[in-house]
Design brief:
alpha+beta; ABC transporter transmembrane region fold; five-stranded mixed β-sheet; two-stranded antiparallel ribbon; binds adenosine-5'-triphosphate; binds magnesium ion
Length: 368
């Protein structure tokens, strides 16, 4: 989100104005070239002999700038993510004395990034130099061609042509000033588009449930409806290249039943729970056999508890209204009474990044 904000604030701010200016200057260049052809007649060929290579070089330079800026943004993302990861886990990094290897990793990315930045500014420098000299060369070549072909006596025509050439020069400068921003816009637009088009989870209760999912309401009395059922093969995304991470499942958990899932590390226990929540997609080609029955509201305590910014009470209620009886029941069920007595401020204690650090067990109990 931070990176997207950076894209929006840095690269997209005022982009419509830049696009309009770029388009207007292109239009002006086109009409001024026509006017110049009328004034300079055959000498226009001299101007074109300078303009055509100049335009071709500028197209190549702006394409290369677009590619470089795309690569630069990818490296910036990678560096920001790595630095954030290191800062978030700074205790672990310090405890295992990983500082040097982390520093090396960040430095390697930074070196690539600086190389990219150097290429970008070299290209941009060439581009700006080209557009600073290009309009002058157009004027010189046009006037030289005219005086060479038609002689110096037609001063009124030369002055009229000078006006056109000066307009052309101003338009070229505006074009050069705005085209770099327009070129930089494409990688930004692609990144924002990619972010906005990320897949949603297949099941979002209250808004969307695909045909293979049956969401039963809390009050359902039907015998089968109270059960959790998960059948089929599932993968982490809807794309066809995604392999199935859970295969040929046939799980049914009856209402009130307690089930323990046991397996080796990384064997897919948490993935199975996420599939039961409806966060996985049927594997490619296995859409027809996928079935999920689940209640509309599920309590889920993830392996790594999520603690939000706020007080302990905010984290327990998590947006629900305060009901003294239910609240006391929840605290007792999660064995939190002792923690409430220990923590300064009880359930009003501020937890999260800026508050008290909870122990692993306390975090798990708050999650429950
Ligand atoms: N969001 C995800 N996208 C893609 N692959 C994932 C994702 N989450 C987990 N995996 C992969 O799925 C596999 C199973 O992971 P999972 O977390 O389900 O294991 P686990 O059985 O819960 O392990 P543990 O006992 O350590 O908790 C791992 O190889 C992991 O890399
Ligand atoms: Mg797990």
């Amino acid at each position: 989100m931070m990176l997207i904000n950076n894209d929006i604030i840095m690269n997209m701010h005022g982009i419509i104005f830049s696009c309009t200016m770029c388009f207007n200057s292109l239009l002006a260049i086109f009409f001024l070239t026509l006017l110049m052809a009328m004034k300079l007649r055959l000498a226009t060929l001299c101007t074109l002999s300078v303009a055509v290579p100049g335009v071709l070089v500028s197209i190549i330079l702006s394409g290369a700038m677009g590619l470089t800026i795309g690569r630069l943004q990818g490296l910036m993302d990678l560096r920001t993510l790595t630095v954030r990861e290191v800062l978030q886990g700074i205790r672990v990094v310090k405890a295992y004395a990983w500082e040097e290897s982390m520093e090396e990793k960040i430095r390697a990315i930074r070196t690539d990034e600086l190389g990219c930045l150097r290429s970008y500014f070299r290209l941009a420098g060439n581009f700006i130099t080209l557009f600073a000299t290009f309009p002058r060369l157009i004027i010189i070549s046009g006037l030289w061609g005219y005086t060479f072909l038609y002689g110096r006596h037609n001063v009124s025509n030369i002055f009229a042509a000078m006006q056109v050439l000066t307009g052309l020069r101003a338009s070229c400068e505006t074009f050069a000033g705005t085209i770099t921003r327009v070129v930089n816009m494409w990688p930004t637009v692609q990144r924002i588009e990619k972010y906005l088009k990320l897949d949603e989870a297949p099941v979002i209760p209250g808004t969307r449930a695909p045909d293979w999912v049956t969401i039963w309401p809390e009050s359902s009395q039907s015998a089968n409806m109270g059960n959790l059922k998960l059948v089929g093969s599932f993968s982490w995304g809807s794309e066809t290249w995604r392999p199935a991470v859970l295969q040929n499942l046939n799980l049914e958990v009856r209402r009130g039943e307690m089930v323990a899932i046991v397996g080796a590390v990384g064997s897919g226990k948490s993935t199975l729970l996420q599939a039961a929540l409806g966060e996985l997609y049927p594997a490619p080609g296995k859409h027809a056999e996928a079935v999920l029955w689940r209640p509309e509201v599920c309590a889920y305590c993830s392996q790594v508890p999520h603690i939000a910014e706020g007080t302990l009470r905010d984290n327990i209620l998590f947006g629900q209204h305060f009901d003294q009886e239910r609240y006391a029941e929840a605290i007792s069920a999660a064995s939190l009474e002792n923690d409430l007595n220990l923590l300064p401020g009880g359930d009003g204690a501020h937890i999260g990044h800026r508050g008290i650090s909870l122990s692993g067990g306390q975090r798990a109990r708050v999650g429950v």
